[in-house]
Amino acid sequence: MAPSSITSFPPDVVPQAPEDPLFGLMRAYKADPSPNKVDLGIGAYRDDNGKPWVLSVVRKADEILRNDPEANHEYLPIAGLASLTGKAAELLLGPSAPAISEKRVASVQTISGTGAVHLGALFLAKFYKIDGVHRTVYLSNPTWANHHQIFTNVGLPIATYPYFDKETKGLDFEGMKRALADAPAGSIILLHACAHNPTGVDPSPEQWREIAALMKEKKHFPFFDTAYQGFASGDLDRDAGSIRLFVEQGVELVIAQSFAKNFGLYGERAGCFHFVAAPSSDAAEITSRVASQLAILQRSEISNPPIYGARIASIVLNDQALFAEWQENLRTMSGRIIAMRQALRSKLEELGTPGKWNHITDQIGMFSFTGLTEAQVLKLRSDFHIYMTKNGRISMAGLNTRNVEYVAKAIDKVVRELP
């Protein structure tokens, strides 16, 4: 008889973890041999041929970098590439923002948006307590699934606030306001700056003003996550409007910023984390102290952030002509997605598909919450080889002029068979 294995990690201590649902969906799609298969799960831009698109401005920046005789592979400082972090803060707050000129912003380069959220969570877990007790992090219901585990992994308690209205397929604004009003003063409120993931539903500018006033009254702490600036509407300033509103009202906050989507630098993991202090006579000193602690946390986690994607983004952000070309690239991506929203809605309405489909064009950004049930989603997968998450979220970037009619007809059939 073979001896039993001896381990410090038996199943009752380390159980088998379930596969990440999104990556499981990707694996199933890749294994599907059907020539008609459609991937509406992937959160990455695809062109009208269904292929990854390297932005023209990124190709030019890459050429500049390759031909730079001074380029090397030395370590970056712990806080990252200063020519990136400074411009990244300007991109969010505006180049003439008083918060920047008054030295109220501490910026650290991170491992894309995920790393930025994690660094912020770690900082708040260590330093943001009231009477020695951690404040609860309130997440929208629903939110990006990774938010849940990032905050719980650092020991912060989480709760949710209503966000998506299943009836209107829009924003449950009254429910959201009630939850923010009822939350204990000083709670951490995670907000999506634009192109809410996964719903594609954003508050209007007027609603953002109400949210800001309510949070300021309750002394809540805003934690903005922004992964789609410029990618949502095609307008960098418009997509940063919610953040600028809070900063202009003198609210202390933090921001997680990703360059994965808007630069197409998915695998290069380029992003930043920003702390913005409220205006005060000692704001610069507060910011300096926060920056010093963020550097300690960064040192213990990754020591130094990666350099390649940061250099690409920095070259573009610091060159007027390349920056203008980047804005055009953003309009190309956002414009194609808007066109696919219009095409899918119009085809569903032409077919007379049961239900209302205006929410598809009312929503914004990469994702749309279709309102399809889990049973309908699974039937679309089994019968038509169309892949989306079980909650009915689709990536609009997975649609193109060749498959949008096929997808619409499949949705029409499934909705009629499984009302």
Question: How would you describe this protein?
Answer:
The protein is 46% helix and 14% strand. It has 419 residues and is α/β, with parallel strands linked by helices. The protein folds into two domains: 21-53 and 335-414, Aspartate Aminotransferase, domain 1, CATH 3.90.1150.10; 75-318, 3-Layer(aba) Sandwich (Aspartate Aminotransferase, domain 2). The strands form five sheets. It has a seven-stranded mixed β-sheet, with helices on both faces. A two-stranded parallel sheet has the order 1-14. Strand 3 (129-130) and strand 4 form a beta hairpin. Helix 3 packs across helix 13 (308-317), helix 8 (205-218) packs parallel to helix 10 and helix 16 (374-384) packs across helix 17. The chain starts with 20 loop residues before the first helix and ends with a helix. Pfam families: Aminotran_1_2. Its EC number is 2.6.1.1. Homodimer. Belongs to the class-I pyridoxal-phosphate-dependent aminotransferase family.
Can you give me a brief rundown of this structure?
The protein has 419 residues and is of the alpha/beta class. The chain has helices at 21-31, 56-66, 82-93, 98-101, 112-127, 145-153, 173-182, 205-218, 236-239, 241-248, 260-263, 283-301, 308-317, 320-351, 359-362, 374-384, 404-417, and strands spanning 38-39, 105-111, 129-130, 133-134, 137-141, 158-162, 164-165, 170-171, 188-192, 221-226, 253-258, 270-276, 367-369, 386-387, 393-395. Pfam families: Aminotran_1_2.
